[in-house]
Amino acid sequence: QKKRQWNAFVGDVAVNPGKLDEVVGSLADFIMPHAVRARSSNNSSSNS
Questions:
Q1: Would you say 17 and 10 are in contact if contact means Cβ atoms under 8 Å apart?
Q2: Can you tell me the distance from the alpha carbon of 21 to that of 27, in angstroms, rounded to the nearest whole number?
Q3: pTM, whole model, 2 decimals?
């Protein structure tokens, strides 16, 4: 289902962003370090 929706989206945009699993992997690689840092920052401030 999600891959079918992704393929429909890709057909509508001017630039081909790539395969869904590759895009999700790239986003995770970019976002996760920031999410981990934010979470550890929240945990350390809530422990004070």
A1: yes
A2: 10
A3: 0.58
